Amino acid sequence: MKVFMAVCMLAVAVRLAAAIVVPSAAPCALTVGFYNGKCGNVSVESVVYDTVKAFLDADKSKGAALVRLLFHDCFVNGCDGSILLDNSTTNPSPEKFAGANLGIAGLDVIDAVKAKLETACPGVVSCADIVVFAGRDASRYMSNGGVNFDVPAGRLDGIVSSSVDAQNTLPDSKADIGKLIANFAAKGFTPEELVILSGAHSIGKAHCSNFDDRLTAPDSEINADYRDNVLSKTCKSAPNPTLANNIRDIDAATLGDLASYVVPAVGGDYLDNSYYKNNKNNLVLFNSDWALVGSNATLQHVNEYAENGTLWNIDFAQALVKLSKLAMPAGSVRQIRKTCRAINY
Ligand code: HEM
């Protein structure tokens, strides 16, 4: 305990001195309101929220991107900003180069927040915390306030980012239920939490290469009209095009008769429990989505969240907080990067 406190205090002292590297094994405990009073008279969380809101007002697709960014950063070696790192001469293949990170976006939002905060208080706010705050704020925005929660902060940035780690760790959209459950269990998540977090697929889009296995799935696993007239046609329309995750966000002409299954939402592209209703109708994009109704371990939770959107909002918020607490491996080198795309030298 004494060692933990000593290292933790060192980290705080280093932050205050705006120095760079904290070569510690034990991170500080994360706390809600961590940055209160640490950035002059600037509210760090307000800067993040205002910046995210401005970007999303201009382009709502960035909302889904930021929610996914939180997941992909935190799942691979903990929340450490490693998804943000560009390739360099010393690290030619960072996480963002992994196939599992195809379509990753929203990094411009993180850059903009970081630039503002570095101007206001250099060396204080980590990129890892910005990713988590931005994912939280995007969830709130995309759910019209339905998903709204405090998230603890005080993370530091890592210096390791490997496309191989990302590929080996992130779940595969073509995986079966056994693999998905094992994949989430490896990070301490239950099958119920797998179901809860997958509800994020009520927003955003995906590339054909991530759902082309569904073009040949049997009628028992996918609505045939959706498979043949929406997924197949989309995939033939261009080289690896994208399609909305939620049928609600597909234009009516493409949907045809399937439009009767659309779960309406205020403003479209809306983070809510429609994912579970679509899933029960065999109208979800990935095999990993459908797999949740194909197993008793998860089907009961799909049914529960299809029925109760308010419960899903609460449980999704809790699951995101749990995701945001995934920590870097013990002994990792920690720092507060000057720019989120490169480690400090
Ligand atoms: C259950 C395991 C999961 C698998 C296999 C999976 C897989 C995928 C894939 C393949 C895409 C499409 C990427 C593309 O083609 O561009 C995607 C998109 C997305 N995923 Fe997941 N995902 C999973 C869980 C999650 C979780 C836990 C979250 C967040 C809490 C999440 C949030 C999103 C969002 C928001 C998008 C849309 C991104 C955008 O439009 O920019 N996913 N996911």
TrEMBL record:
Cofactor note: Binds 2 calcium ions per subunit. Binds 1 heme b (iron(II)-protoporphyrin IX) group per subunit.
Chain residues that bind Ca(2+) 2: 251, 254, 272
InterPro entries, alphabetized: Haem_peroxidase, Haem_peroxidase_sf, Peroxidase_pln, Peroxidases_AS, Peroxidases_heam-ligand_BS, Secretory_peroxidase
Gene Ontology, cellular component aspect: extracellular region; plant-type cell wall
Transmembrane regions: none
Site (Transition state stabilizer): 68
Enzyme's top EC category: oxidoreductase
Disulfide bonds: 39-121, 74-79, 127-340, 208-235
Keywords recorded for this protein, A-Z: Calcium, Disulfide bond, Heme, Hydrogen peroxide, Iron, Metal-binding, Oxidoreductase, Peroxidase, Pyrrolidone carboxylic acid, Secreted, Signal
Matching Pfam families: peroxidase (PF00141)
Residues binding heme b: 201
Residues annotated as the enzyme's active site: 72 (proton acceptor)
Binding residue positions for substrate: 171
Record localization: Secreted
PROSITE patterns on file: PEROXIDASE_1, PEROXIDASE_2, PEROXIDASE_4
Domain Plant heme peroxidase family profile as annotated: residue spans: 29-344
Binding locations of Ca(2+) 1: 73, 76, 78, 80, 82, 95
Gene Ontology terms describing biological process: hydrogen peroxide catabolic process; response to oxidative stress; response to stress
A single MF term (Gene Ontology): heme binding
Described purpose of this protein according to its UniProt entry: Removal of H(2)O(2), oxidation of toxic reductants, biosynthesis and degradation of lignin, suberization, auxin catabolism, response to environmental stresses such as wounding, pathogen attack and oxidative stress.
Family under the similarity heading: Belongs to the peroxidase family. Ascorbate peroxidase subfamily.
Protein name: Peroxidase
Organism: Oryza sativa subsp. japonica
Gene symbol of the encoding locus: prx10
